[in-house]
Amino acid sequence: MGKRILIVDDEEFFIQPIKILLERNGYEIHIASDGMSGLQKARVVNPDLIMLDLMLPGIDGYQICRLLKFDEKFKKIPVIIVSAKDTDHDRELGFKSGADSYITKPLNPSELLAEFDKLLVA
User: What is the distance between the alpha carbons of residues 29 and 116, in angstroms, rounded to a whole number?
Assistant: First the structure.
């Protein structure tokens, strides 16, 4: 099986096409639909990369990113923030929270795969 990807997003209609795209490209996909389950799943799955929405029930994506990036065990895992929030302020906050990349919705599949290739060089 390929690299493990954790998608933390509460929008089912967004997750399903991305899951299919990534599985077709050899990735093993794990999904969490809110902040707390995203953190728990990260600890269990130990993903190679995390796709993280910002607007989540409970803990938001900025907080999740900070918690992961300040944890020795997870700080090296690339985090791509994937959000409909598209202001310079949102992007700046994302990178200050520790994100490695910031992509806005709706996603361009080839842009997403190129970002994965860039961040998952092993």
Answer: 13
